[in-house]
Amino acid sequence: MVQRPLPRILRDGGASLTRGRDLARSAADGASDVLRPLIVLSRGLVRLLAAGRRRWTATPRERRGALLFLAAAAVLAVALTPYGPVSALVAVLAAAAWLGRDRARAPEESGPSEEQAARLASLYEALVPYFSVPEAPEPLYAHGGEWQRALSDFGFDERGRLAALTVAYPAYFADGDPESRARVERLLHAKCGRGREYHFAWDEEANRLTLTALPPLPTDIPAQPFVTSPGEVVLGLTDALAVRRTVPLVDAGGAALDVPPVVWRTGARSPEPHLLVAGRPGSGTSTLLRAIALQALRGGDVLVVDGGGTGDYTCFVGRDGVLGVECGLTGALGALEWAERETERRLVAANRARQAGEAPPEDVRRPLWVLVDRPAVLGHLARAEGLADPQSHLRVPLRHGRAAQVTVVVAEQYDCLDGLDPVVAQYAKARVALAPAGARQAAEILGAAPQSTPAGELPPGRGYARLGTGPVLRLQVPATPDPYDDSAADTHREAVLALLPRRGGSGLAKQAGPAGEEVPVEAAGAEPDEEPTTQPVRVSVADA
To answer: Distance (Å, rounded) from C-alpha 310 to C-alpha 485?
Structure first.
């Protein structure tokens, strides 16, 4: 049987298809060369729009109106300027061309350097006893194993220390046990370099632990009038990843900053109306109380009781809005007894106003702040002299202070916390722990362990804060020294003096019952018989 030849198109089809592909590729290359300027401009415009959208998303809601006004003013100025629209168009095209260019990528390294690999291998070997069990069939952690399977997303700083790391751990590890977590965190803190603070994020679903080296919080922010709503108090500064709010600040050098704050909301609708501060000597508890007092004086009255008798609050004596600064036992008893009766008086006045269908009086709506430093010392002195513990007069303000616009702030040292009245710990749900000795001590005060490890040496005012059942936040208290302390920086002392109200007469002339007469707290539906007799009570400032 004679074999017929194939058609020509089938015999020479391979060469024709090859030439067709070459022609199509050449045409595409030529078109890309011709349209390259348009491609670059389009890519740049897309990147400009993406950058603008990111900027808009990152701007807090309270500042978006000002940003829109600024943008509208800029557009109007460009429109009214001669050759303004043309110049703006040229500038936009130039920026788009610059952003749309092909960015030469640096050649990616195949992996970490020898020193970095040795550091990661050493860290992997150190984690083996924590994440391995003998009966595991294919252990993720084993001596001499591959660290690449367990450690990823690592980053190093300029000194060669780990700045970021993701650790994969087996599913049988007890990541819900605080003690097991604490052991791993202590090991990573030691291996990654001491002297820094690290944040640990445990992803229990994916069995991943992410370590991040936190930058130090600024310590040169002086006391200043913070931009807050009524009833809000800035306790200090924190990390940008912890809160989504920022406040405009000015540092000691005069530079404007936007810093995330720790804001404590007080008042009738606050879930945590009272604050407990714990710290070591020199950790900044008095600094925090001074910062709170300066902010409270902007719209309220302040009563200060200095149980330690150190004279750290002498600068408030005789100032407008300051009802008294007590340093002795007798004065502290009188001041706290007055605060107790003033709380009862406010409750009675507010109840009568509600029964009459009226708003509470102005003196009832005005916030009253009771700041008590070292009450355990006063309790010890009172027991030695056979007197009542001054803390017993804090029970009524702590229990009913929310409705009476009375806020109580108590500061005590760690070794004297046992001397606090149980009512203080029960009702002071906002907590601050300054310079804790470790995560366990911070957890005892805050009710939860912090997600970061403290550095070796903490500056004054550094610690942790927790408002109610919220997360534990890093905290740096603004520099609010005693303005009469010559060892403090002059800029910080001048900032405190600028915030202090002018000196006036004694402010403690509120309505309160006599010391030997009880003021009843009436029920919501009870009708008062007659107006209780009131007289002013004056609390003198005792010498330290």
So the answer is: 12
